[in-house]
Amino acid sequence: MHEHAAGERLEVAAAVLALLADRTRLALLVRLAQGEADVTTLTEASGAARPSVSQHLAKLRLAGLVATRKEGRRIVYSLRHGHLRRLVGEALNVADHQIGALPPHD
């Protein structure tokens, strides 16, 4: 991989991590990691106000991290790929280690 591609890769990875670095968006992604959900379900799961949840979902969708499909009049959201699900899970695992002073492991 040449330097330009490596730089672009880091740029995009940093942008993804920046999107994850918001408590509400992270809560939405944690819920979506369990399976697809609509705005009502996601609002309940995140504990944020519905307009805020809709805005955060729009950002995640624009960034290509979540996908949508229509089910009647409902819009159902899902994670775009397993890498994101694992990334969110690992972020929570790191938090568990920080909070619980768990022994380091690989």
Point out poorly predicted stretches: none
Strand content: 5-15%
- What does the main sheet amount to? 3 strands, antiparallel
Average per-residue pLDDT, rounded, comes to 93
Report the strand count. Answer: 3
Write down the secondary-structure element order.
HHEHHEEH
**Spatial shape:** globular
Radius of gyration: 15 Å
Distance between the termini: 27 Å
Number of helices: 5
Helix content: 55-70%
How is the largest sheet built, in terms of strand order?
1-3-2
* Helix and strand composition category: alpha+beta
Notes on the structure:
The protein has 5 helices and 3 strands. The chain has 106 residues and is of the alpha+beta class. Strands 1-3-2 form a 3-stranded antiparallel β-sheet. The protein is globular, with a radius of gyration of 15 Å. The mean pLDDT is 93.
